[in-house]
Amino acid sequence: MPGNGNEMTARAPQGTRTDETLLVVRAGEGDEEAFEVLVRRHSPAMLQLAMRLLGDRADAEDAVQDAFVSAWRKLPEFRRDAAFSTWLHRIVTNRCLNRLRSRRPAAALDAVPEQAAPDHQASPARAVESRAAADALARAMADLSPEQRVCWVLREMQGLSYESIADTVGISLQAVRGRVFRARRSLTEAMSAWR
To answer: Could you tell me which residue ranges the RNA polymerase sigma-70 region domain spans (predicted)?
Structure first.
């Protein structure tokens, strides 16, 4: 069917900046198929980010779904002064931050996703020690404030620059540095027994 966006996605190489820009423009004009391509392309990274921030797959999936619904609604307002992925990071991060703030002060340990099965050749003692260390890290992460946790995850696990984090979270560069510093200090203290 002419004008439905299939020609654009068939001709443009997948993953190029031009392709992404065209998809965003088309989706902003109401092209659901273009938006579906964007969702498929960005869902894995956004789910990984949400999992790292929330520590619970169901919460992460809900946050990402909410973020994509919000992105679809707000896409006509997207000014394209930042990359679509940066804008989407901001939406997902805000959804996760809202969920973290609404939680009880400490997350239950059973909310932490199960670790991958240990190597069958690893000793049972090593497997128990690894699990205990992972549980200690989960408790330490749960003790961070939601704001510190978000900044630390974006910096240490997602590899974003301080400037990108400031833009994503909507705070000053100095505030980002302070939150990452305090999170690192808290985690270092909490994990000192595991060194």
So the answer is: 38-104
DSSP code at position 118: P
Express each pLDDT in 21-42 by its tens digit: 889 889 989 899 999 999 999 9
Is the C-alpha dihedral spanning 98, 102, 106, 110 positive or negative?
Answer: negative
Task: Kindly report, residue by residue over 73-104, the tens digit of the pLDDT.
Answer: 998 888 777 788 888 998 999 999 888 888 75
Evaluate if residue 4 carries a pLDDT over 80.
no
In whole angstroms, give the CA distance from residue 149 to residue 110: 19
Pair 29, 88: CB distance under 8 Å: no
Q: Is the CB of residue 139 less than 8 Å from the CB of residue 133? A: no
Residues in the chain: 195
